[in-house]
């Protein structure tokens, strides 16, 4: 047999699994810490609060995870979310569309179109994803202001508010929707050729292309899906707030990218998991919630958020370098 | 070969011009199932153009391609793939974060309904790995494999997509001798599966071991196609170069001058230990080791690209501390890395910019480049080293051949006025002609007083260019030879630690 | 002549002229004949941003007032919430030869630079809402505006909750410094002074609204679990948007009926919120941005014509609630207020 003697038998080291474990540890440390410091943290009322406020960041983070896995980035997600909210309210209030759901559908389509445009700019015109989506960010945000005239609009449709505030069997509807989407995209990423191809594209685009994968088509779909999910996040936001404003979801892109990176997805592509993203989203949410419960000033909250992000990602990097050094030494 | 059979592939009178310059002039090639055809030629001979036409990357200007006797049109790589033609490039294209099995079936993952059928993925991967008698676990991540294993996976992948023709471009360039043996066994297994192989290599010594026939190109023209039995390596080289090549004479080594570079007990546990050596003025010292012996890492440490844990480096008898490439450059050390495309050159910069990269301080005045001076200096090195390119010093280095790229890296350090030059696998992927050229340049530079340390896994290279040879085994220096004492057998034995 | 020599010469001449004019202008303006007085004026207005309703109303009001004055031409610019842009706009105004500048800019650090440029050019400046050294201040009396809302909230609590409150949420904006702080302090002081049972410090939660609805929503969502037993919660918010976010958070937590909120600005979305059935938005102090112009233009003309002007000019503030909204904004809410009556219009004019 031709076993190559210069290298040991490579054993899959399950790096992703290890990342997930270190994430889960971060999560547990935070939970224990906040439970110890605040009597209100592990109360039913707060858990319901946490559960019902995860969905916006959580859903948008799915799209961002896909994008990052392909080695791209999308910073237009917050602006697209705001645009979706504005489109809904303006169509309903200013254009007198008969049903808010019709308006919401139009908003989802608008988000998808922005995403498709991103994808076209990146694949056809070879524009760097950061630049392309920076442009889209500016355009979407600008359109949100133009369409709304800078105004906040109230949306008092009780049916529509179910999206962001309703619950089924005590579980917030937005959370159910988010869990459903995570399950769906988990299957897509891990068990469909499309999903596996995304990893291949992010890992080595040229290899993917040479293997006959239609790289551009995949990227187009990924950015369109991200636009769609961002718009959905925007709709949940509007539903929760019962109002839309062009200035909403400011900085959402940073929270989302932070959560995804925290979840172990590599900014250079090829690596990442939705399980990690899911935990990343929860960690950031718990951090915000816990620090607010502890009555920490918002400026220190910013510091704490950044510190946790750097610590978690930093530890993971160190751990990975360790395991890589071990692997090298073995060779 | 059974010459009565119809060839699997016939390329007839293929011509190609770039910007009016003919690069292929009515070149023909035929290939039979189950054979290995070595496609040989110096850089610029037209090999890669011919191959790219076969792969649909380039469109031919004239000629026809027949597969199984039928005329085919190959407009894009997809067409080539559909006809069972598969390229394995020198730089492997694989997804490091995916498993071996997924890489094997990349783009063709079997499905059950809309989902990937993971069991089938595993089974198919195992089947093809077994066909070529390869023992690599299908679930291992690509990034955990050694270079040769990755290459083998690429070959298995070609088989997995039902390739009938596999083109291998310099498959042994990064391999140690023992790994070459393994690769050749895999290739023979491929032949047994009736796959035809076009084999491109600059290592002429391995051609007789693996090829059935050779086709030689020179300056875009077909020179000869012969059964391998009819040619020896010397004749092949002559056909390639077109002039009489004399074997490099093993002159006695010139006497070394006072030590310029001295290492004392340089150590990084696990990679290299207790390395003491000197390189004198005008001396070329070669370190030979099999892949993984630690010699590559040693050079990176001397240059400050990696760290060392203990020991001392002396330059001209003065101890120097080297923590970064910048420190090394200040101390007068230049480094030509193994993978010039990744580590040595900024491919999208021009030849001029690359040559002056390490020397911006002297070529700028108050933050402004002295462009004319820069250009003149670059031209000087282009002339002296014989760097050949279309378009002068403003050509982007991406478009240079491997040998010429290597010379650009050399020129950079010469321009920076280094005292010591360290080369890691200096002729990796460089063609025969350019190789001899580089050796001659190194000799000339040594004669002018440069101290040169060459680290290589290519035994011929170490033997032909070094004045003095050290061997490394498992991170330690295992033996030292003078030029007169060194022989292939002795070096190999010392490098293999006596086990060989 | 060498062209390169001409350029610096031109700059020097301009500078000398500027310095001289400044030198002569100062002592002369103290005397009776007023050198800045003219038949007609060009006034530069740089808006805070064109993105929000409030500032759009300020701009519209100014345009109207300029037309009404008859002899004023407005030059418009947008400071885009950015100090550097504000400085660039100042330079542009000076180049365009405006007689006076009305600046609505956010960055206190740029105030000095902007004012020194304006002084060099001898152009008077009125600063809206954010003071600049040496400029006449025009704008909200933020502390007083706060007091109006705090007092109204205290009265409502006295009437409906027997003067008893379990928790106070202050939706603040610490990143923007003193002005919003004055508003918040005014609200809290007046509330505590007027409520029957003043709230102890530990039941007052200072939260950072970051000036957006969703951030207000988040911090209130995260604070409510720490006061699970509070059933009488009041919130005082930096503006309408954060008020709306606060109410949304309470409603989403199923505690909408346990909260009462006051805010500031009373912009259209705030008005709509307070007019909802069973609204938890008691009301908001109005700043009447649409009326800024009617005071700003005459003030600027007074300055240019050397009439005495106080260092600070304040806008009128009124606490707007569902009860009195028809007195001020009847045209916004015909369904609620019925036909716009002549009296209502008269009252509106009197109020402004």
Key structural traits:
heterotrimer, A: 331 residues, mainly alpha, ABC transporter involved in vitamin B12 uptake, BtuC, two-stranded antiparallel sheet, 73% helix, B: 500 residues, Rossmann fold, 2 domains, 18 helices, 24 strands
Describe the structure.
The complex is a heterotrimer of chains A (331), B (500) and C (352). Chain A has helices at 15-37, 44-52, 55-69, 77-93, 100-123, 129-148, 158-165, 173-191, 193-203, 205-210, 215-241, 252-262, 274-293, 298-330; strands at residues 153-154, 167-168, 171-172, 243-244. Chain A is mainly α. Chain A has one domain: ABC transporter involved in vitamin B12 uptake, BtuC. In chain A, strand 2 and strand 3 (171-172) form a beta hairpin. The longest helix of chain A is centred in the last third of the chain and has 33 residues, at 298-330. Chain A starts with 14 loop residues before the first helix and ends with a helix. Chain B has 500 residues and is of the alpha/beta class. Chain B folds into two domains: 9-241, P-loop containing nucleotide triphosphate hydrolases (Rossmann fold, 3-Layer(aba) Sandwich), CATH 3.40.50.300; 259-495, 3-Layer(aba) Sandwich (Rossmann fold). Chain B is built from 18 helices and 24 strands. Chain B has a six-stranded mixed sheet with strand order 6-9-10-3-11-12, sandwiched between helices. In chain B, a hairpin with a 2-residue loop joins strand 23 (468-473) and strand 24 (476-482). Chain B is globular, with a radius of gyration of 24 Å. With 352 residues, chain C is α/β, with parallel strands linked by helices. Chain C has helices at residues 3-29, 53-69, 83-95, 108-120, 142-160, 178-194, 213-223, 240-252, 268-275, 292-304, 325-328, 334-337, 342-351, and strands spanning 41-47, 72-78, 100-103, 125-128, 136-139, 167-172, 204-208, 233-237, 259-265, 281-286, 312-314, 318-321. In chain C, strands 2-1-3-4-5-11 form a six-stranded parallel sheet, with helices on both faces. In chain C, strands 7-6-8-9-10-12 form a six-stranded mixed sheet, with helices on both faces. In chain C, helix 2 links the parallel strand 1 and strand 2 (72-78). Classes of the chains: A mainly alpha (331), B alpha/beta (500), C alpha/beta (352). Chains in contact: A-B, A-C. At the A-B interface, helix 9 and helix 10 of A face helix 2, strand 8, helix 5 and helix 6 of B.
């Amino acid at each position: 047999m031709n076993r190559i003697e210069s290298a040991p038998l490579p054993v899959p080291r399950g790096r992703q699994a290890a990342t997930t474990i270190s994430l889960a540890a971060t999560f547990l440390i935070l939970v224990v810490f906040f439970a110890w410091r605040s009597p209100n943290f592990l109360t039913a009322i707060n858990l319901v609060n946490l559960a019902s406020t995860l969905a916006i960041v959580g859903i948008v983070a799915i799209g961002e995870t896909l994008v990052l896995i392909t080695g791209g980035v999308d910073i237009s997600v917050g602006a697209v979310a705001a645009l979706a909210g504005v489109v809904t309210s303006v169509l309903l209030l200013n254009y007198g569309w008969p049903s808010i759901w019709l308006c919401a559908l139009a908003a989802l389509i608008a988000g998808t179109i922005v995403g498709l445009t991103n994808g076209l700019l990146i694949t056809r015109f070879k524009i760097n994803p950061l630049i392309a989506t920076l442009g889209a960010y500016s355009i979407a945000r600008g359109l949100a202001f133009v369409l709304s005239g800078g105004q906040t609009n109230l949306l008092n449709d009780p049916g529509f508010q179910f999206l962001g505030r309703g619950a089924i069997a005590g579980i917030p509807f937005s959370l159910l929707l988010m869990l459903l989407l995570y399950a769906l995209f988990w299957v897509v990423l891990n068990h469909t050729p499309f999903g596996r191809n995304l990893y291949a594209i992010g890992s080595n685009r040229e290899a993917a292309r040479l293997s006959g994968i239609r790289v551009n088509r995949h990227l187009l779909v990924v950015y369109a899906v991200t636009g769609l999910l961002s718009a959905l996040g925007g709709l949940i936001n509007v539903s929760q707030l019962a109002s839309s404003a062009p200035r909403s979801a400011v900085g959402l892109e940073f929270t989302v990218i932070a959560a995804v990176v925290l979840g172990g997805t590599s900014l250079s592509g090829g690596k990442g998991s939705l399980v990690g993203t899911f935990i990343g989203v929860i960690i950031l949410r718990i951090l915000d919630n816990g620090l607010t419960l502890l009555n920490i000033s918002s400026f220190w909250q910013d510091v704490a958020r950044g510190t946790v992000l750097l610590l978690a990602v930093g530890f993971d990097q160190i751990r990975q370098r360790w395991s890589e050094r071990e692997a090298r030494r073995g060779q | 070969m059974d010459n009565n059979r119809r060839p699997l592939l016939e390329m007839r009178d293929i011509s190609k011009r770039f910007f009016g310059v003919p690069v292929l002039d009515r070149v023909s090639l035929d290939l039979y199932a189950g054979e290995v055809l070595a496609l040989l030629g110096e850089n610029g001979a037209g090999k890669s153009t011919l191959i790219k036409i076969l792969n649909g990357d380039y469109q031919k200007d004239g000629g026809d391609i027949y597969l199984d006797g039928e005329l085919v049109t190959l407009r894009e790589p997809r067409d080539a793939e559909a006809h069972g033609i598969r390229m394995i490039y020198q730089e492997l294209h694989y997804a490091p974060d995916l498993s071996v099995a997924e890489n094997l079936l990349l783009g063709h993952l079997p499905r059950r309904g809309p989902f990937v059928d993971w069991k089938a993925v595993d089974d198919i991967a195992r089947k093809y790995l077994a066909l070529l008698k390869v023992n690599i676990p299908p679930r291992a991540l690509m990034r955990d494999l050694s270079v040769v294993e990755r290459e083998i996976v690429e070959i298995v992948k070609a088989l997995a997509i039902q390739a009938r023709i596999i083109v291998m471009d310099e498959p042994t360039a990064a391999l140690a001798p023992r790994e070459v043996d393994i690769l050749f066994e895999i290739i023979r297994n491929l032949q047994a599966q009736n796959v035809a192989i076009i084999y491109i290599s600059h290592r002429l010594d391995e051609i007789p071991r693996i090829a059935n026939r050779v086709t030689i190109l020179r300056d875009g023209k077909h020179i000869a196609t012969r059964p391998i039995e009819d040619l020896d390596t010397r004749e092949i080289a002559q056909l390639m170069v077109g002039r009489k090549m004399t074997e490099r004479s093993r002159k006695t080594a010139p006497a070394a001058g006072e030590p310029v570079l001295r290492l004392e007990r340089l150590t990084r546990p696990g990679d290299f230990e207790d390395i003491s050596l000197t390189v004198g003025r005008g001396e070329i010292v070669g370190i030979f080791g099999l892949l993984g012996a630690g010699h590559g890492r040693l050079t990176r440490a001397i240059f400050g690209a990696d760290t060392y844990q203990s020991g001392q480096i002396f330059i001209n008898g003065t101890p120097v501390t080297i923590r970064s490439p910048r420190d090394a450059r200040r101390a007068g050390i230049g480094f030509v890395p193994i993978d010039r495309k990744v580590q040595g050159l900024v491919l999208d910069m021009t030849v001029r910019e690359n040559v002056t990269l390490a020397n911006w301080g002297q070529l700028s005045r108050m933050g402004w480049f002295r462009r004319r001076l820069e250009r003149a200096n670059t031209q000087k090195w282009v002339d002296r080293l014989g760097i050949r390119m279309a378009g002068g010093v403003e050509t982007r280095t991406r478009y240079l051949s491997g040998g010429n790229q290597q010379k650009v890296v050399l020129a950079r350090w010469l321009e920076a006025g280094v005292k010591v030059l360290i080369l890691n696998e200096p002729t990796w992927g460089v063609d025969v002609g350019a190789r001899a050229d580089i050796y001659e340049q190194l000799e000339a530079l040594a004669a002018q007083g440069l101290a040169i340390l060459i680290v290589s896994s290519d035994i011929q290279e170490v033997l032909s260019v070094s004045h003095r040879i050290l061997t490394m085994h498992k991170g330690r220096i295992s033996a030292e030879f003078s030029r007169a004492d060194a022989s292939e057998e002795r070096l190999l034995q010392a490098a293999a630690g006596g086990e060989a | 002549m060498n062209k390169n020599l001409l350029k610096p010469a031109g700059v020097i001449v301009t500078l000398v002229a500027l310095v001289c004019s400044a030198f002569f202008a100062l002592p002369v303006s103290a005397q009776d004949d007023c050198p800045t007085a003219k038949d007609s004026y060009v006034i530069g207005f740089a808006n805070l941003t064109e993105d929000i309703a409030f500032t759009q109303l300020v701009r519209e009001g100014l345009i109207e007032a300029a037309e009404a004055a008859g002899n004023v031409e407005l030059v418009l610019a947008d400071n885009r919430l950015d100090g550097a842009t504000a400085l660039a706009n100042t330079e542009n105004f000076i180049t365009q030869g405006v007689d006076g500048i009305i600046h609505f800019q956010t960055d206190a650090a740029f105030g000095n630079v902007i004012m020194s440029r304006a002084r060099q050019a001898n152009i008077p400046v009125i600063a809206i809402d954010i003071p600049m050294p040496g400029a006449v201040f025009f704008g909200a009396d933020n502390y007083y505006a706060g007091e109006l809302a705090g007092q109204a909230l205290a009265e409502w609590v006295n009437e409906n909750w027997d003067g008893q409150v379990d928790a106070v949420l202050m939706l603040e904006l610490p990143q923007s410094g003193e002005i919003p702080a004055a508003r918040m302090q005014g609200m809290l002081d007046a509330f505590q002074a007027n409520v029957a049972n003043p709230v102890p410090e530990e039941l007052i939660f200072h939260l950072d609204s970051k000036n957006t609805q969703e951030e207000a929503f988040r911090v209130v969502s995260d604070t409510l679990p720490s006061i699970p037993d509070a059933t009488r919660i009041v919130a005082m918010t930096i503006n309408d948007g954060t008020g709306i976010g606060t109410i949304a958070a309470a409603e989403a937590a199923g505690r909408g009926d346990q909260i009462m909120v006051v805010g500031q600005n009373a912009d259209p979305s705030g008005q709509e919120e307070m007019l909802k059935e069973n609204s938890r938005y008691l009301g908001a102090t109005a700043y009447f941005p649409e009326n800024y112009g009617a005071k700003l233009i005459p003030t600027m003309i007074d300055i240019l014509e050397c009439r005495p002007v106080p260092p600070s000019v304040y806008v009128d503030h009124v606490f707007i609630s569902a009860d009195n909204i028809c007195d001020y904004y009847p045209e916004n809410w015909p369904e609620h207020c019925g036909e716009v009556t002549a009296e209502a219009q008269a009252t509106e004019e009197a109020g402004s």
